[in-house]
Structures are given as structure tokens and as C-alpha cells.
Amino acid sequence: MEIKRVFDILELYKSDYADLKDALSYKDKGSWVNFSAQDYYKYSHLFACGLINKGFKKGEKIVTMSQSLPHWNIADMGISLAGLVHVPIYTTLGPEELEYILRHSEARIIIVSDAGLYKKLKPVAEKIAEIEKVFTFHHIEGIENWVSLIQEAQDNEEELMKQLQEIKDAVDENDL
């Protein structure tokens, strides 16, 4: 297997590390939560399908603002699989810097990790008409979670996976 694009690593995970039970891990309320290599592959592809389902087209941007979480890795791969551009931003930026980056990023959605970052970013995002939605990685009551994109994709998974394959095939190793 030749790895030419970042997301080609997922094929390696699927074939050579299929039995790996803790490819990605994080601690939640004192307990470790693991994502297997198969989970990483599956959820990355479903997340990409969720973005395609929302109408995203090759080259469009998605902002994330998150602490180190496996969710970020899955989103990063999903964004790449869909031919999109990931715009990760630091969690420590102030409102002025956030507004500048968001205004110039051309992103339609933002995904933040937790309630604190949501509170910090939401008022800034509301000033920018191009930002359609702010999702979260962690569950926060009343705020749409990134898992909703995955769940929506599962409703039309077969068709979306076909579209995703066409997009993956069109992503060149020199694409951003």
C-alpha cells in the first residue's frame, strides 16, 4: 500500500492494525475511553459522509477548536476524506484573534470540544454571517453535537459512501 494522501493512513489502520483496540484514547471522568483502529476508520468515513450530506464541496473549510481528543483526529480525517480543508485554531486565542481567523477562514461550520470553548466562541461566530453552525465534540445539553452529522449520514450511508469514494478518488496528493 502506498500512502500519498494523509487519509490513506486509514487504509493502513484497516488492513495492518485491524485488531488494535486502543488506536486513540482519552480520559473521561477518570476512565479511559478507547477507539479501535476499526472505529477510527469507520467514524472518519461516516463523519466525511455527514459533511457531504450537509452539502460541503471540495475545498470548503471547517474550523475546529479543541483540546487534544480522539474526536479531533476523527474529524480531521473525515474533513480530509471529503476533500475539505481543516482550519484548526488554538484554544487560547482571544476574541479579536478568533474573529479575525473566522472572518478570513471562509468556514461554514465550527466544531468546539466543550462548553467553555462554546461559550467563548459562540458570540464571535454570531457576528459572522458565513458561519452557519457551531457543533461540539462533548455532549452539551441543547447544543448540536458532531455525532449528529454521523447519525444523519447513517440514514443514507450506502449512497453517501459512493459519493465519498468518488471524492476520495478525485483528491490529489498535492491538494491542500
Q: What would you call the structural class?
A: alpha/beta
| Number of helical regions | 7
- Termini, distance in Å? 22 Å
Quote the average pLDDT: 95
Helix and strand run: HEEHEHEHEHEHH
**Total beta-strand segments:** 6
Shape: globular
Q: Which strand-content bin applies to the residues?
A: 15-25%
What profile does the largest beta sheet have?
4 strands, parallel
User: What are the segments in which pLDDT stays under 50 over at least 5 consecutive residues?
Assistant: none
What is the CA-atom radius of gyration, in angstroms? 16 Å
Helix content: 40-55%
Strand line-up in the sheet with most strands: 4-3-5-6
Structure at a glance:
The protein has seven helices and six strands; from the N terminus they run αββαβαβαβαβαα.
Give structural notes:
It is a single chain. It is globular and about 45 Å long. It starts with 8 loop residues before the first helix and ends in a 6-residue tail after the last helix. Helix content is 47%, strand content 16%. The protein has a 4-stranded parallel beta sheet, sandwiched between helices. The chain has a two-stranded antiparallel ribbon with strand order 1-2. The mean pLDDT is 95. It has 176 residues and is of the alpha/beta class.
